[in-house]
Specification:
- The protein is 65% helix and 13% strand.
- It is built from five helices and five strands; from the N terminus they run αββαβαββαα.
- Strands 2-1-5-4-3 form a five-stranded antiparallel beta sheet, sandwiched between helices.
- The radius of gyration is 48 Å and the shape is rod-shaped.
């Protein structure tokens, strides 16, 4: 035992022997300093690689965690910012009692917070990123659902258009029948005009005009029918593609919901990691 400790209480002498071993209780990456004092002065100030320890044996104790702990008889934990000593660290101060139960000194451990602050920053960044990603997925999912709803409306309108085209085709068929009947009527009129001879010339001109209009109507009706058939086929094709596209979008919307749920779970985990990092 060093001579300067011989007159100190037994508990302080025991702690003096343990001081070199205290850092071994922490991980290799942990950087800790340890200080031992009686009620008035530092007895041992064991530095670390990064935490400054300017006080030495005999230096008067400054007001801080160690004096607060001895005055209260309770452990005291304090966090000191990097702006104060150049490195952020947390001090853990514990009072030491003699056999009579009186506070005769204290021990303080200073722990570098650079690593825990780094973990905390990473946890915060992770939580922020997951939160933003979750919001983006929710917006995307909402947009996909809007497209699905709009496509369903388009599909309904396409079916109506297809139905209207079929109805129009029926009308065209009716026009074609009328044109056919009109043409037959024109032929009969031409035959009767021929029988009438000179007296039927005017009637023959009317009959020829009826036949010409009938043929023109039949030709137009045929073209309209072809157009309507093509339009119906196109509308049906569009409708089928919209239905197929909607099925794919519905699947994607469900997948996005699953991703959003997973991100929400990850966000909760990130929050827990951040809370845990606050305790490091």
């Amino acid at each position: 035992m060093d001579d300067f400790m011989k007159n100190e209480p037994e508990i302080l002498q025991i702690m003096a022997k343990l001081m070199p071993y205290i850092p071994s209780f922490f991980d290799d990456e942990e950087d800790v300093s340890v200080a031992l004092s009686n009620r008035e002065i530092f007895l041992i100030n064991q530095p670390s690689d990064s935490i400054p320890t300017t006080s030495a044996y005999g230096d008067k104790l400054p007001e801080g965690g160690l004096t607060q702990s001895m005055d209260s008889g309770m452990p005291v934990t304090r966090e000191l910012p990097g702006s104060l000593y150049g490195v952020p660290f947390r001090s853990y101060s514990v009072p030491l009692f003699d056999e009579a139960g009186s506070v005769v000194g204290g021990v303080s451990i200073g722990r570098n917070l650079n690593r825990s602050n780094h973990v905390k920053a990473l946890a915060q960044n992770l939580a922020d990123y997951l939160g933003q990603s979750n919001e983006s997925i929710q917006v995307l999912s909402s947009d996909v659902q809007k497209v699905v709803d709009e496509n369903e409306d388009i599909a309904v309108q396409s079916k109506k258009a297809s139905g209207n085209a079929e109805s129009s085709a029926k009308i065209v068929k009716l026009i074609q029948n009328i044109a056919l009947q009109t043409n037959l009527l024109g032929i009969n009129a031409a035959v009767e005009a021929a029988r009438a001879g000179t007296a039927g010339r005017g009637f023959r001109v009317v009959a020829e005009e009826i036949q010409r209009l009938s043929n023109s109507a039949a030709d137009s009706a045929s073209k309209i029918n072809t157009f309507l058939t093509e339009m119906t086929d196109s509308v049906d094709d569009i409708s089928n593609k919209i239905v197929s596209s909607n099925a794919l979008l519905q699947s994607q919307a469900a997948a996005l919901e699953e991703i959003a749920h997973s991100l929400d779970e990850l966000n909760n985990i990130g929050e827990q990691v951040r809370d845990l990092s606050d305790k490091l």
